[in-house]
Amino acid sequence: MKNHLLLPSKYKVFGWILFLVSAILYIYCCSIYPSMHDGKNLGIPGFTWSYPSLFTFGDNELTTAIFSSGVLMGLLMICFSKEKNEDEYISLIRLRSWQWAVLVYFGILFFVNLLVYGMEFSIFALYNVLTIFIVFIVKFYYSLFKLSRERLVDEK
Fold first, then answer.
1. What are the CA-CA distances from residue 114 to residues 53, 69, 118, 121 (Å)?
2. First CA to last CA across the chain, in angstroms?
3. CA distance 84 to 73
4. 3-state secondary structure of 61
5. Integer Rg of the chain from CA
6. Do 120 and 89 contact (CB within 8 A), yes or no?
7. Which of 12, 30, 106, 149 has the most crowded Cβ, counting Cβ within 10 A?
């Protein structure tokens, strides 16, 4: 069965590079750099964006938006890239991994909904979106690792 929604396998490498670079820069931009420079994000010229006062609660810069978008796009490329030898069994593993990821995501969301309130819940819900992708990647590649080990044992 041919799946037209998957990217070619070469996008997985681009996804890993984009994810790792963006994640490192996002962590640097949001946690390390602001503590040294009065809470400002990276002051890259041309990346400062001023939103209309209706939508803003403070100074916004485009750098965190670019880096967080890079993290999301990298994870999407990793998750939606074909394997080099994509067959029906790998498609089944992919489906089961997505099911696990969605169940873990909503399980975490359910318990946090009961325990966390206010702005902290909003911040958590924003970062929890990445949970689906991260759980999928861990489960999918762990299942592929187990499959390759089983095939090696069968060949011996």
1. 33, 29, 12, 10
2. 30
3. 21
4. strand
5. 19
6. no
7. 12
6-65: pLDDT as tens digits? 888 899 999 999 999 998 888 877 776 554 444 444 555 545 555 455 555 555 556 777
Helix (H) or strand (E) holding 124: helix 119-155
Query: Identity (one letter) of the amino acid at 122?
Result: S
| 3-state DSSP assignment of residue 7 | strand
Supply 153's token pair.
Answer: 């044992």
Quote the tokens at residue 81: 């890239």
- Which of the four pLDDT bands, split at 50, 70 and 90, describes residue 96? very high
Beta strands in the chain (DSSP E): none
Contact (Cβ atoms closer than 8 angstroms) between residue 44 and residue 86:
no
* Collapsed DSSP state (helix, strand, coil) of residue 78: helix
Mean pLDDT on 97-116: 91
For the whole model, what pTM was predicted?
Answer: 0.77
Which residues partner with 61 through β-bridges? Answer: 48
Distance CA 85, CA 78 (A): 16
**DSSP character at residue 5:** T
CA within 13 Å, CB half, 74: 20
